[in-house]
Amino acid sequence: MVPLLNYLKKVRVKLNNGRELYFDENGDPPAVYDIMNWQLSPEGNIQQVKVGSFDVTASTGQIFNVDSSALVWSTGDRKVPRSVCSESCPPGFRKAAITGQPVCCFNCIPCPVGEISDSTDAVDCFKCPWDKWPDPKKITCQQKTTDYLSYEDPLGTTLAAISALSSFIPSFIMRLFVLYKNTPRVKASNYSLSCLLLFSLILCFLCSLIFIGYPQPEKCLIRQVAFGLVFTLCVSCILAKTIMVVLAFMATKPGSKLKKWTKPEVSYVIIITCFLLQLVICVSWLSLAPPFQQYNIQSQPVIYIECNEGSTIAFWIMLGYLFLLASISFIVAFLARRLPDSFNEAQFITFSMLAFLSVWISYIPASLSAQGKYTVAMEIFAILASSWALVICMFLPKCFIVLFRSELNTREYMMRAKFNTK
Question: What is the mean pLDDT of residues 411-417?
Fold first, then answer.
């Protein structure tokens, strides 16, 4: 056997097709294979079609030869299918493994809100810095824009213009009262208290301007305090008016000892006392937990520059005290609305306090649902609406009589009206 094997190693036979047949040192012939492709014939039968060859005896570069145009794949076309389970994940997505599948099989999941991926087939997304936000494709982090209620903003411009123009209305009414201060109607409405009330209403309209513009730390510190003190002065004047109406009526009863309480000084004591209590609340607030400027970056593409009230409890105590004064004024005025008098202001005070309370009760849920500059806009709207409610309910009837119904602004008519009410 061994001699035969040695003999075969030396045998080289040239075939008719020009190929050479020989055996290697192991007695094996050269590797020559046809590459066959199973294809479906037009008749529906499976047939083998030669599409290439593997021949180690061929010249260099021709050992492995495949005619790709003759190939038909299982997909039915001649395009070579991709031998991958999943396509690559583009930037802005991350790979998520599929349970029970090989590692090459995965899903491409978009990055969550606030995160990006800047490479292909990223395993994880990462968050942008606090002052940046992903672009729409979630590939890069872009600088966030800042936002606040500015004077350049259409909303801020509108509110500022309304505030400034509205402040001229109580100024005009005060001028009117000064010109007609000796007429019965103006005297009956307590001229000095009315002027103080009108002055406080001017401040109420103007204090809303503090809420517009860049929220500087100094502005954050004083704006809510200014609002609270100014409105306390305003409501205290109305409360003093209400109490004086009741005292004036009760002092007219025979044997009443309340006449000494109807002096103007009593109304000023009421106003100062109410104002000082609010002042104590505000000073305590500023001392213990003062408001400050903050950047609101809670998962938003915009940084809201706003004022943090420092102590939410202190803010609601301040607002609650104002609500208490208005409620007392409303209750007293409501009970005194039918007192027989020639010009009973209790009815006007009742309507004004009802409108005032309605505005601020509506403000509470509205402010909690708003965000950013719209929270500030809601408070400005409440300030303007409640101020206008006081101007209209307290002074519009008087101005109408003074300007257009002078026959009702006489001592004779007032006395006759007083006599008819008894």
Answer: 55
CA distance linking residue 394 with residue 170, whole number of Å:
11
Of 131, 132, 133, 137, the residue nearest 118 (C-alpha): 137
Percentage of the chain modeled with pLDDT above 70 = 83
Q: Report the pLDDT averaged over residues 119-145.
A: 89
pLDDT digits 0-9 by tens, 11-64: 677 766 666 677 777 777 778 888 888 887 777 788 888 888 888 777 777 788
Q: What is the DSSP string of 239-258?
A: HHHHHHHHHHHHHTSTT-S-
- Beta-carbon contacts of residue 272 (< 8 Å; ≥ 6 apart): none
Which domains are assigned to the chain? 2-70 (no CATH), 93-143 (no CATH), 154-421 (1.20.1070.10)
Q: Which two tokens stand for residue 241?
A: 């008016």
Torsion of CA 215, 218, 221, 224, to 10 degrees: -60
- pLDDT tens across 151-210, in order? 998 999 999 999 999 999 999 999 988 888 877 777 777 788 888 999 999 999 999 999
Instruction: Mention every residue, 6+ apart, whose C-beta is less than 8 A from residue 265.
Output: none
User: How far is residue 237's CA from residue 231's CA, in Å, rounded to a whole number?
Assistant: 10
Taking a C-beta distance cutoff of 8 angstroms, is the pair 360, 386 a contact? yes
Tokens 């809510």 -> residue: 224
Element containing residue 171 per DSSP (H, E): helix 168-179
Q: Which of 376, 351, 230 is nearest to 293 (CA)?
A: 376
Which of 96, 100, 126, 102 minimizes the C-alpha distance to 114?
126
Number of H helices, E strands in the chain: 11, 14
Distance CA 2, CA 170 (A): 128
Tokens of residue 155, six digits: 């909303």
**93-97 and 106-110 as β-strands: parallel, antiparallel, unpaired?**
antiparallel
